[in-house]
Give the backbone structure.
Amino acid sequence: MSSAPMNIASAIQSASIKRHPSPRHDLNPSTAASSKQPVEPTSPTSSVASNANSIPESALRPTPRKKTLPPLPDMRFEQSYLASLQGADTYWKIAWITGRDQVFLPLVQGMLWTLLLSGWRYWNRGAQLQGASLGSKVRRWWWRVNNWKIPEETQERISEKAGEFYTAQLGGLD
């Protein structure tokens, strides 16, 4: 019974992971540029007619290529999931690991991301309405430089604008 989960994990892993990938073969397919040989210039003993059809020096002596980067690490979800399954010896552990990796952790990640964005929007809205944002400071400075009259808005008018904005965004939900 304990070998069945390991057999399942082994079958999945052996079907999808290359144990010893070749950086030369697995990173990119070969192209015509892979097999080109550099051109060696010949001596200038040819006739004037052939000079009109000659190849420019920049084509004969191309700029050397930079050294290639090392292969990119494999950041797919599958690799970490299969590594988590290595220690599972029962069906319950496989179910727990699968539920944790594919349901619970994405749910928590999405919830935390939404809370972060909601907090940012709340803080940013308050900063804009109170005139504490960088844009409002620059706008006030520009208006003072040009000797324009800065409109004075009361707190009630600002809150009315905020209410109108949310009514327009939410479609007047009552």
